[in-house]
Amino acid sequence: MNAKVRLYVDHPLGAGQTVPLDRDQAHYLFGVMRLAVGARVALFNGRDGEWQAEVAEASKRSGVLACVEQSKPLQLPPDLWLIFAPIKKARTDFIVEKAAEMGAARILPVATDFTNSERIRQDRLQAHAVEAAEQCGGTYVPEVAELQKLSALLDHWPEDRQLMFCDEAEVGQRLFLDAVQSENPPTASGPWAILIGPEGGFSDAERKRLQAMPQAHVVSLGPRILRADTAAVAAMTLWQRALGDW
């Protein structure tokens, strides 16, 4: 019988492996979910797939789970980064959650010339990525990077990583990904990134630099200007449909 509760753990998983629980995990499993010794819990760590485990020891402040059998192999997402400028707290949380659900391999907040929010809580956003994977059945958790300047990220941009540059100035233009899809690899496969701009849009200097990059592909997201959180979901949907694993 498969478990109804899924839990991310930062611990190796495998046949016969025991997993100690910290105080918060024990409280959730035994205080909130009311599990007892012998109950099943689905575990994943982003490396070893999903494992069915049984509660071997249970108390208010600690506990031990024992791995029984693997229920899912590790399912890696495409090599896709989502790059975005942080916005209001709840909407930034939304972007991270949806990026984790939709198959981003890495999530990179960046400060642009017109970014309104200049600080983030990286640990809180990483926790949102973990929760998204727990809830949607994922076995991989994308890294949420620390906030960095967009200019610094572009200074060290990998030569082999293509960039889908979602530019609100191109609203109403034809979607470019159809053309990319028809090209020969590595353009149509391999490492990619999606860049979503801030609420105030890109500056002229940023737009000029991005358009000059040989890896950059300017894309319109349709006939309407979208909010940043909506744009992130729309862009990932279009990329996954054209070049991803959907």
Summarize, please.
It contains seven helices and twelve strands. α5 links the parallel β10 and β11.
Q: Can you offer a commentary on this structure?
A:
The protein has helices at 23-32, 89-102, 122-136, 150-155, 177-181, 204-212, 228-243, and strands spanning 6-8, 18-21, 40-44, 50-58, 63-72, 80-84, 106-111, 143-144, 148-149, 162-166, 192-196, 216-219. It is built from 7 helices and 12 strands. α2 packs parallel to α7 (228-243). The model has no long low-confidence stretch (mean pLDDT 90). β7 (106-111), α3 (122-136) and β8 (143-144) form a beta-alpha-beta unit. The protein is α/β, with parallel strands linked by helices and 246 residues long. It is elongated. The strands form 2 sheets. Strands 6, 7, 8, 9, 10, 11 and 12 form a 7-stranded parallel β-sheet that branches. Strands 1-3-4-5-2 form a 5-stranded mixed β-sheet.
Class derived from helix and strand content: alpha/beta
Percent in helix: 25-40%
| Content of β-strand | 15-25%
Could you give the count of β-strands? Answer: 12
Could you name the ranges where pLDDT drops below 50 across 5 or more consecutive residues?
A: none
Give the overall pLDDT as a whole number: 90
Shape: elongated
Radius of gyration, whole Å = 20 Å
Q: Helical element count?
A: 7
